[in-house]
Write a sequence for this structure.
């Protein structure tokens, strides 16, 4: 790699590659997929206060708290500029976050569940707005999981001595309560040989696979 600065007013360059090896069989190479990419400092982001060091964090939609992201940028630019970006489609497209133009960014609580990814891009001065002239950091992932929306049903009404079946959906864990201190887990829930004392209202606490 190499680093160079174009003079003022120069927007195009010619890069010539020359093979200086002596003549003979085997000293020439044919290359058909040369790629140019921006060269710049190493950019590493982290979640402030996340003692585990992971760059992934998960929340339930009703249990979020603000997060502060921090970027560490090594030397390499004379006058670096910064821009935080967010992606909601697993990194296919990125959008600039308005006003997030420093090495730290505080993510507010989002109203909607979803899969959010964040990164910091750095460029030399105004070059930060040019995708081909900037470098990007590792990605921070924030998963916001929705609350379950249970649907419940039973096969009643039933007569004494019959079997009652209680059903629920949209969860991974089901915790039932009912008359007379009744408790049970799982679904569908079968109560054989029902008695009149067991008549009444049954409730279920539904928990998703993400703990919501």
């Amino acid at each position: 790699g190499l680093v160079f600065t174009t003079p003022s007013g120069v927007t195009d360059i010619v890069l010539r590659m020359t093979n200086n090896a002596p003549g003979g069989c085997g000293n020439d190479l044919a290359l058909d997929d040369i790629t140019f990419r921006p060269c710049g400092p190493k950019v590493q982001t982290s979640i402030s206060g996340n003692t585990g060091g992971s760059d992934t964090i998960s929340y339930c939609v009703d249990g979020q708290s603000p997060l502060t992201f921090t970027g560490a940028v090594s030397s390499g630019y004379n006058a670096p500029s910064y821009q935080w970006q967010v992606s909601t489609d697993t990194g296919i497209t990125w959008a600039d976050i308005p006003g997030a133009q420093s090495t730290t960014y505080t993510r507010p609580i989002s109203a909607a569940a979803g899969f959010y990814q964040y990164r910091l891009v750095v460029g030399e001065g105004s070059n930060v707005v040019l995708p081909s002239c900037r470098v990007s950091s590792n990605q921070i992932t924030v998963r916001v999981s929705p609350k379950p929306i249970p649907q419940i049903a039973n096969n009643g009404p039933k007569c004494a001595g019959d079997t009652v079946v209680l059903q629920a959906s949209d969860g991974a864990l089901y915790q039932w309560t009912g008359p007379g201190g009744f408790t049970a887990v799982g679904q569908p829930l079968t109560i054989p040989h029902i008695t009149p004392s067991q008549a009444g209202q049954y409730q279920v606490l539904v928990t998703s696979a993400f703990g919501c």
